[in-house]
């Protein structure tokens, strides 16, 4: 799976210009990583784009209620905060410490829907919903986290 970078890496100028619009639809020539967060700054995501694949890792910093799936037996750190998916296949919840980074994220304003790589995401006052090409995805808000 690999680690995710939380700051933009080698992002081409055109992508930097389009990020305020939230998402980029054009396929990159090489691997690109960029980040975004919801206006509440409670959901932060990293997106990796390659020519033939993409992945997204989102972390909800503060959440309430039960997690979207039971804690695995071997998970001894934070659970229910971290969600990962590729452009095909089901969502994976990750057992990893919650980290909140204060800088380096573009804002995904409420009401914006965007397509990039193999994902469609919608940011709203209710939360963030992302789906991949197979229809798998997640919905994240402070009160509810759902995997489908």
Automatic annotation (TrEMBL):
It comes from the Bacteria. Pfam families: DUF6636. Keywords: Signal. InterPro entries: DUF6636 (IPR046576). Residues 1-31 form the signal peptide. This is Uncharacterized protein. It comes from Albidovulum aquaemixtae. The lineage of its organism: Bacteria, Pseudomonadati, Pseudomonadota, Alphaproteobacteria, Rhodobacterales.
């Amino acid at each position: 799976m690999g680690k995710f970078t939380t700051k933009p890496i080698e992002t081409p100028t055109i992508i930097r210009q389009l990020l305020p619009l939230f998402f980029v639809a054009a396929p990159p020539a090489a691997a690109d990583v960029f980040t975004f967060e919801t206006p509440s700054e409670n959901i932060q995501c990293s997106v990796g784009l390659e020519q033939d694949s993409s992945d997204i890792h989102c972390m909800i910093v503060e959440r309430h209620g039960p997690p979207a799936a039971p804690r695995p037996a071997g998970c001894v750190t934070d659970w229910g905060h971290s969600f990962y998916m590729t452009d095909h296949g089901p969502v994976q919840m990750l057992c990893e410490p919650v980290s909140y980074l204060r800088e380096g994220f573009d804002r995904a304003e409420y009401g914006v829907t965007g397509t990039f790589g193999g994902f469609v995401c919608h940011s709203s006052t209710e939360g963030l919903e992302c789906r991949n090409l197979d229809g798998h995805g997640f919905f994240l808000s402070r009160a509810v986290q759902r995997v489908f």
